[in-house]
Every structure is written in C-alpha cells, then in structure tokens.
Amino acid sequence: MTDFKREGSHLASYPPVEKWDDWVEYDAEAWPRRVARHYQLIPTICFNCESACGLLAYVDKETGKITKFEGNPMHPASRGRVCAKGPATINQVHDPDRVLYPMKRVGERGSGKWARVSWPEVIETLGGRIRKAIQENRGEEVMYHVGRPGYDFIMERTLQAWGIDGHNSHTNVCSSSARFGYILWHYADRPSPDHANSRFILLLSAHLESGHYFNPHAQRIVDGKMAGAKLAVMDPRLSNTASMADYWMPTYPGTEAAVLLAMAKVLLDEQRYDAAFVKNWTNWEQLKIDGFDAKGKSFEEVIQALRKHYEQFTPAFAEKECGVRAEVIVKVAREIADAGSRFASHLWRGSASGNLGGWQSVRALMLLHVLTGSVGTKGGHNLAAWNKFVPKPFKVPPAQKRWNELLYPPEWPLCTHEMSFVLPHLLKEGRGRLDTYFTRVFNPVWTYPDGFSWVEMLRDENLVGIHAALTPTWNETAFYADYVLPMGMSPERHDLMSQETHSGRWIGFRQPVLRRFEELKGNKADHTYDNNPGEVWEEDEFWIDLSWTIDPDGSMGIRQWFESPQQPGKKLTVDEYYGWIFENSVPGLPEAAQEENLTPLQYMRKYGAFEVKGDVYKLNEKPVAEADLAESNISDNGVITKEGKALGVMIDGKAVAGYNTPSRKLEIFSSTMVDWKWPEFALPEYYRSHIHRSAQQVSVGRSSSDFDPEHMPKVEWPAEANGEVFTLLPIFRLPTLIHSRSGNAKFLYEIGHKNPLWVNPEDAVKLGNLRTGDLLKVHTEIGYFVLHAWVTEGLTPGVVACSHHLGRWRINQDDQIERLASALVDLREIGKGQWKMRQVSGIQPDQGDDPDSTRIWWNDAGVHQDITFPVHPDPISGMHCWHQMVRVERAGKDDRYGDIFVDTNLSFNVYQRWKALARGVTGLGVLRRPKWFPRVVRPADSAYIR
Ligand code: SF4
Questions:
Q1: Pocket-testing residue among 45, 79, 81, 85, ligand 1, by greatest number of atoms within 8 A of Cβ
Q2: Do residues 524 and 531 make contact, with C-beta atoms less than 8 angstroms apart?
Q3: DSSP for residue 213
Q4: Alpha-carbon torsion 211, 616, 584, 641, what sign?
Q5: Which residues pair with 757 in a beta bridge?
Q6: Are 819 and 747 in contact, with CB atoms under 8 Å apart?
Q7: Checking DSSP bridges between strand 884-890 and strand 822-831, what pairing results, if any?
Q8: What is the per-residue pLDDT across 39-93, written as a single tens digit (0 to 9) for each?
Q9: Listed residue (56, 33, 908) closest to 490, CA to CA
Q10: pTM score, whole prediction
Q11: Which residue's alpha carbon is at the smallest distance from atom 2 of ligand 1?
Q12: First vs last Cα of the chain: how many Å apart?
C-alpha cells in the first residue's frame, strides 16, 4: 500500500486495519458515562465529487446502523483525509426526505403525483420499450444521460452491448473546453499535475481545485508549498486558493490567454526555454504561420518565426487586456522559467469554461509547459491517461456501428463531448425524439443554462416518450419524470474508480456497506437493495437485470454480455464482474491478496483501494517493442505505423511511443484545425471573448487574426433590461457544496446556503452607493433574477459574480422534497414560453422526522441563477460559454428576493445566433469528426462516414 512517508505526509493517527473488525469508541451522546461502542469499519469511496476519496464507514455492530464516515487511511490518493463533503455522506444516508422506493407518476407529467411501484414492474416496462426500439431500428431514441458518473467503463460496456449510440453526458457544461485545448496538444483530455514535487504551481482553477480533485490535489499543493514551491493563481475572484497564493493575478475574465502568451514571449525573448525539448518533442517542422513555412527551415528559424508571431504579446499589452501589472506578469514568467521541468499547473473550468474560445487559454498554458520542458516530468505536467487506471472486464462488446446526431450534431464536428445542453433546441428543431430517456444523477433543469427549455422538453410526451430519473435524491428534473428510481449513495453501491490525483496509479472500490456488513456476518444477499435503506438499488444490478429483460432468450445478442464468466447462461453477479477484473486486469493485486490469503475481491472489500505499480513519468519515451517494429513503416516526419495504425515516433534515432496525436508529438501547430477549416487557430492564440470589456459597448474583434468580428455573437437585450453592464461570473461554488446533491446534507447547508452577487466597491458606487444586503435585479439575455448584493474587494472591478449550487426550489409543499435546502416556489407559465417564479417561503425549521431540523437558524435557500441563462455553444469545442454580459440595476418595488423570469422564445433565438458561428465542416468530404479525436463510447470507424 501507499508509503505515506515517501510522499512526505502521513496521518498522525487512525484506526489500524487489524482493528477494523472491532473498533471501539466511546459513545459521545452517553457522556459523561463511558459507554463503549463496537464498530465494524468498512471502506467505500466518496461519491460527492469526482475525486473518489476513500471513506471508512463506521457500522455500529449492535444496531447495524452506519453512524459516521471518516477518511480511509489506506487509500493512495486521499491518504485518510477528506473534505467536508465526505463525512456529510452520513446526512445523505439518513436524510428523511430521500427517495426510498421506485415511484411512478400518476398525474400529468410534472404534476407531482406519485405512487410506489416494484422494481420488477419498472424493469419490465423499460426493458420492453428498449427492446421494441432496438428491434425497430430506433436505437438512438434510447438515451442515457449522466451527470456525475462515479464509475469507470461499465456504462460504455452496457450501451455498446445494446448496440446503440446513446451516451449523453454533462461534460459540455463542465470541462470540455479545457479538454479540447489539451487534446489538441497531446490527445489526453486532462492534466495530471505533479503538485507535490513541483517548484512553481500556476492554477487557473476556481479555488484550491475545489471543483475537481479538491482534496487529493489540495493536500499535494500544500505538500509542494511546504517543500518550497510557490503558488500563483489567476482568477478574477479572491478565491480560497488565491488567498493562500504567493501571487494573486486577478485577470479580467477571458484575457488569460493574452497573459500566458506574454509569459511565453518572455521565455522566448530571454532564451529561457528548453530548446532540446522543444526541438525533439514538438511538431515544429510542420509550422505554417504568417506566410512562413517550416519545411526545409532550421529549428532556429522556426523559433524566430514564433517570436515574430507572438511579438504583439508584450507584457504591456497583456496588462492592458487583463488588468494585472506587467511587472507581475514578467516576474511570474521568470519564476516559471526558474522552475523549469518542475512547473505544474491546472486549468479545468474558469477561463476555459467561461469564454468563447476559452480552450485557447489551455493551449497557451501548455505552450509554457512545452517551453520549460515540463511535460512528463517529476514536478511537472503529466497526462491523465498515464495516472488514471481503468481495468477492463472479461468481455468487451464491439463498438456500435451507428452515429447519433442528437449527441454529435454536424454543426460542431470538433465538439469535445456530446452537445447535451442544446438537446431541447435540437428536439424543438424537429431533429428527432426520445423514446426512452434515462437521466442519471443528473439535474439539467437546475444545473444547466436555460432550464425552462428543459422543462418544456421533458413535459412534452411527443418529444420524450418516457423519462426515468435514476437518482439518489429528489431534484427539479426528477419532478418531470415518469419514474423516479432511487439509486444508492456512496455506501450503497458498487463502482470502480480511479483518477489522476498525483504521480501514481490506483483503483478504488466503492461497495454497499450494509451488504458487506451482513456478508461478514454470513448473510449473503442476492440484491444490493436487500440491505440498503428502503429499496434503494444500485445501477450495476439494474443494468444487468434490464439487459436480460431486453433480450430474455439471448437472440438479440445482448444477453451474452451480462452472463456469468464462470457459468455461461447464468445471470452475471456483481461479485463475478468485479472479481474477474481484480483477478485478471489489475497488475500486482492478485499477488498482494495472496500474501494475505485473500482473493483479490476480498482484498478490495477489505481495503477499498489498491495502488497499481508502474512508471508514471515520461511514458512518451517508452520504447516501441521490437516485435512491433518488424514490418512497420516510418514516415518522413518519423511517425512509425504498422497496418495503418500509429505505433510511435523516432526521436534521436530511437523508436518511442510519443503522444497519440497525428505527429506523435506535442502539437504546437494543429493541422487538424487547418483541415477542419479553422486555420486561424492552428497555433495557441488569444482572441477576445464574448464578454471582453470592448464587447460591453459593441461586439468587436481585435485584429484580422482574431475571431472574425462579423461572427462575434451579438447580445440582444430584452426591452425591459436596464442598468449597468457587467460581466457575470457564475461558475464558482462554495467548496463545501456538492453539485446538485448538497440538498440532503445538513452539515453542508449549515455551512453555506447563500449566494449573493459579489460587487466590487467601485462598482457599488456606480450602482448608487450600493450596500451589502441591498436587493439587485440582474438581467440576462432571456430574463432576470433578483438577489442580494455583497460588496467586496475580493473581485476585480467591472465583474460581478454569483456562486452556483444554490437556489434549489420545489413546487409542492406536500412533497417531502429536499425541504432542508429548497425554497417553496410559485411557478407559472404566464404566456407561451414565459416563466415566472416567485419564492413563497424559504427554508423552515422543524421539518418532522429529523430533530436537528428544529435547529435550522437560516431561511435563505439562495437564488437559482442558471435557469435565466441562454445557451452559448462555442463554435469549435462545443462548450457552453458560461460567462455573460448582464445588466444590473436596483430591484424595483414589485421585485422580491428570489424572483425569476425567463422567456424561452428568446433563449431559442440566442441558440440560433450562437449556432450560426459554427462552421459545420465535413472532414475530407466524408468524415463526421477527426478520427484521432477521442469520443465517448466511440463508434466503429464506419460510423464516422457521413
Ligand atoms: S474531495 Fe470529493 S471525493 Fe474527496 S471527500 Fe471531498 S467530496 Fe468526497
């Protein structure tokens, strides 16, 4: 297991593993009496963000109840530590408002009337519909739409077993812009920074990476800092991280690429770059810029051409764009140069997710890594795929031969992930319908922009035949479902998880704690819902049962993928599925288990995680196997291929793996962007975002090399939109909140439950000497929301900011739906597509079954801002560009806190304006998408032909 001392930090104290079967603590509630309680400690994996930290569930051996969760010290990434959201799992488990049984609607869709049904009835209904759709060649009308996955690979396997192209995700409202920038450089769609060993860390993330790998990264950033690393944070907001940084760079949003290119210019001009690395590991020989063609030119000439290309990015220019002083930009650039190969960074949302062309900030950031030679190095930028370990199961179905244009529409051929947030508009345009729609831990009505377009889509039975919401909690989207199907929280389900949390590889095993508790007592269950609260189930068993129902006799070729590997013809069990993986696909695990006389499955059930051995640095330099080299071809630019498949690249006379790009090198010049008709962005560039300060007056581009000014989306304000124009930052959150699942975690809601509008004091003066607590009306392009002001210097002027993850609402007082977190609202459609919401009451104390609810001292449930935002699809990455211009004025006499108005007719118009920016090219005349680009649940090559 993890050598904590080697990693430079360890827990001072924790229950040793040998005592996990009978851990004794004194009962706090019995104090001052000393009453010993005996616990079985069972590991599982947290489900409250993507990090997959290890949790230890404390099960009282006398009552059989889980009493608390703490960190699992045997987990290689989290090392026993958790953030506030990990222990709050106990609230989720015991939430009196949770869904405990499968429910079917009995009134009109959205009327909020439900009746309890059985799991077999649910499976029969859904399985029958899916079978019919597949048999009638309508497989694409079956769609699985996931919010928080929390598993690796099993859904890809399931959907491909069904032979459909039906996977949809939330990624295009999350991180796809950043992913796009990374893909263009090296194919891997996310970074794995080695913070602990770095000398300089630059974060363009929201705050100590609270949204992404918060705890595992945060603790390693601290390790790095304690070893002397410096930290710089580029964020318009004084985030928690920025407050701990050596440099806070409050860049005006959308200008980050200008700053990063100015830093690159410093490195080039001062010759502080790693020439050998750039020469060996970039495709500089393919560069074509400003009339310069690298073909036949020397490396030095290419560097000169690059310097000329970036000469406009002086620190003074960057200062003018971003508002940060030029000398700070130069100082940070020099510190990065000093760190050299030990320069680490992270960019996931923030500048990438907020802005039109935000992915260029990633390309510019990666240019710094390339120039410093800090790619693949200790303390540098590593590739996620080098650290994340996804073992494969016993049988993998073939790729589907179909392409679903509701997922990957032709307008956006380069989109990183599915164009999920425009789905209501695609259906409105008559491009298809959904027969059977699964939402799974997914709440688009609340988390997506333009939520009322989702309401309109979901309530229309012609567009959505049946909607099953697989969810551990009630949510605003489940309200518009036909079936609400309760799925387990982290201690109520099986999943396999791995993430690129540090320079190492590991797998974590989420397991249903009470099922395991009973198993240890000799009571083996057939289904996870036998031991979970109520009839809360887990997806693994649900999909297996559903697949058997779709194809009961195996004639459709589906059932075979869900049969026991040991006993063909028998239904697969979760023990068999994971047991096979642990025995056959995880290097080192069988041996480690054998040392303790355990099977690999028993080992994982005992420890909950395993560190997989292997090199994690410089995997690009891994030699190509001699056997593979036989009969291979080497192209002029050194790419090694065999039978049409790229194997590696020649570097200094050696055949090595390289990167999965067309050149097998880091691509400073992207011929893909040229081929797909975006030649102006073949290199890392800066162009002004749709919320650039100049765009607050008129839409304008910077020069002919910018994004074509004619194609900058115009903002059209509703007639009643008054007030000062600001840029709204809506994509940060309080680090104690979970996406849409904080609502049943009372610990977390007590800590954070307000989302006022941050306003800089200078802007407060402009708004008529605004004071904290004053009521403001914020107009978007499609409506408005009303909330309180918070006047703070922790935000750059000209910008206002509001945390998402608050503003939950419910319509019916009778339903026990997230009462701890939601406001009761009056929601009306006052005209076609015109939605008005008013809060009737905030959070009330004394909600019944939980005595703690009598102690609720707050009333504020926050304000739901996202639903007032139109969709802004980036024409290239497909990412929703979250930042937007808004008009802010003081609320009028008829406005009340929490008021919301939206006109979905306007939102459809905004969608059309942004869609018009896309170029919709077909590659080589026939391709839907570059074949080398990653794609979720990748179809067969034949499906790429239009
Ligand atoms: S960082 Fe994420 S996975 Fe880890 S404890 Fe917090 S919420 Fe759970």
A1: 85
A2: no
A3: S
A4: positive
A5: 789
A6: no
A7: unpaired
A8: 999 999 999 999 999 999 999 999 999 999 999 999 999 999 999 999 999 999 9
A9: 56
A10: 0.96
A11: 49
A12: 49
